[in-house]
């Protein structure tokens, strides 16, 4: 496990001011954690990290977890300790905490433009093994010029569209132009292909998700074949994610996968159809307190829109926690309204209770918090900073 942050520190108050109290301290019971707070169940987390690592290793496929899901160097260290080859970051600034933490292999799995971002990427390349994506020759030249000037070498991966319809070139001619442009600059080298199909991750039906993943892999394989016919070896084909990892590692096409949400299994991924032992464990929870029971059949908690992302659905009450299954019905800024099983049920016993919620979408929910409260068997074991929170440039 990564090093723990042993205690939360107070925000130093101005003269005569009041300090912000710590969210939690190591050793606290769940009921002592200030809410709303982001909880990480370490037993589930450990199992999820080990599960993905072993499945990929059995097929000789590398795991490069997506740090945009967790934004935490502590989690990245745990993934690296389990065998990950590095991490992905979606934005250039998002990678900064991981560079500073000594994560030595980072892939920027997204295109970027502009002098400032190019300069930042070059600065990172002086400290870590860096790879980046391009899908336009106009992205290549500034990077190549800057890399040569700085005396660094950057691995550049053309992105190919394998079904997402977002970024990436969609023709062999486009790939050829990018490879030729990369080869023109001594500070750059062709590192392989980025072949990511994001929407495939979220197809609920298992058969349809498998078929879509296979189609994406077939498209990626066609680009690899095209390059090989030109005498160009494609050392890396990277892509995939939590939803298609089981298919991608069996494809024979992908050399590495980029899953992110598997460490948490949020509500959306949990709602998908899974087969065999590929369902991961729910490990990320929002701890909330019932703050009002003024109406029969209804409880109101302190976790609303400022505490949890709702783009993939409202959070779900973790029903294994206690009797009854309240339904999270609506969210406003600071309130979450949950209906009890019966409209006339006495809600008073719930007042002051800590409840756990499963967020629908982990990535934007994580971005709302400064730290994880890492718990094991109902006790706080560590506080892990979310260092890349808000780094979206």
TrEMBL record:
Q: Which GO terms describe its biological process?
A: D-serine catabolic process
Q: Which UniProt keywords apply?
A: Lyase
Cite the InterPro entries for this sequence: Ala_racemase_N, D-amino_acid_metab_enzyme, D-ser_dehydrat-like_dom, D-ser_dehydrat-like_sf, PLP-binding_barrel
A Pfam family the protein falls into: Ala_racemase_N
The Enzyme Commission number assigned here is: 4.1.2.42
List each copy of the D-serine dehydratase-like domain by range: 283-376
One molecular function GO term is: D-serine ammonia-lyase activity
SUPFAM superfamilies tied to this protein: PLP-binding barrel
Keyword presence, Lyase: yes
Q: Which family does it belong to?
A: Belongs to the DSD1 family.
> In its UniProt entry, what is this protein called?
D-threonine aldolase
